Amino acid sequence: MIIAKLLSPAPVAGLIAFLLLSSPGLRAQADSESERLGKLERAVDQLQKRNAELEDEVRGLKKRLAAGAEVDANGNQKAKTVSDGKTLLEKPITDEKPPVFVVQGGPEIKLTLGGFIQANFEGGDVSAFEGRFGQTALKDRFRLRRARINLTGEFAEQFDFKMEGDFENSDGLNSNRTAFEATDIWANWHRYPEAQIKVGQYKAPFGLEQLTPDTQLFVIERGLPTGAITPERQIGVELWGQPFTNVWPEQKDLLTYHVGIFNGNGRNTTLNDNNNFMSVARLELMPFKGKIFGQDASLKLGGDFLNSRDDAGTNISQSLTLKVNSDGSLSPYTLPGADERNAWSFDAWLNIGPFDLIGEYLAEDVDGRTVAGHPPGFSDFDPSGWYIQASYFILPKKLQGVVKWEALEPDQVDDDNIHSLVLGVNYYIHGDTIKLMAEYIHTWSRFREARPQFGDDNFDEVLMRLQVMF
After folding, report:
1. Regions in the chain scoring below 70 on pLDDT
2. CATH code of residue 285
3. How far apart are the C-alpha atoms of 344 and 305, rounded to whole Å?
4. Hey, which end of the chain has fewer CB within 10 Å, N or C?
């Protein structure tokens, strides 16, 4: 009987509880569980309180929005109508306008707005190095050389694009007033790095100096040979790529090719001059990229070819500097009759740390052709030119000295060579983003040297530039 009572449920439960509470370790564990439960209860209370506060804020915000000012079609707040107890009055709104934001209209995965400004001071024999002397001479001036704004983007479908316009002060356009015009407008399909397709308006792939971006040149202006012979911007399409990108990734820059066809009569033109197209090809090699004397070093080689059949009235010197005038100065060469042109060039760029050595040779055959019985109206000529340029960072990545020697032979009359020597210094305030440039350019004309009756044959100019990118 006694044993049965001891084994009944109530006494057994009490005994178990007594044993648990009498054990120090078990007592501590129970206390710890109790504390955790208390903390959880307090946290739940705080969350409930904060939730109630947020609900009050949301209700208040909804009331303010419901009573907010109306907005007209232009996004401006309309005047509120209030009452003074007798009449209805319109009370002007003094609150700040809602913030304005811009989003892309298409499915671009990347969209970048940028641009740059290049402001020049040009003094002395301005642009004499381009053949601007005698009857084509220019006066001292401040010049907004380039003021560009551009938009670039990329799509998930392996397309990228660029749209750019320029507010530059262009010589010979709109009575020498500022003119806005398109520069680069193109789209590029880059699904396969070995074979990309680019279409639109951009620089035809011909000439190292011409293809070097305006903001990355070591001299203020491109040389006369580049301006006279390279085709500059054209409208067309090209196939280009780097064949070793996937098969030999560490040597992807070893070979780059470009092959394209273009209208051949310049940029921002809606019509082609004829039913023929300009064919352009460029091949770039980088046979060496490594270390020399412990400095990063590379050697880059390039070659170009161009063929074009042009009709009368086509300007074949996009930089306005190829036709030899009676006094030896140069001006745009607009064809008096049809022609066929073949041009080629070779270039090399050696870089060893702070030192760069660049050279390029360019040549062209301009041969007249008879069309429908009409003779070309000019004699064949073969312009050619070259330059060699060396630069060195006196202060690493800050102060750079540059020297350049160049020559052009238009080959239209005897002794029509023009030579120039450039001495310059560049100060990189913040890389190419903010840069100051200053140059002295000495130019001499063989034509005028052989014909002193036309006046001076040596010319001097000072150029300075401020460049700001954004």
Report:
1. 1-31, 62-96, 169-178, 318-319
2. 2.40.160.10
3. 4
4. N
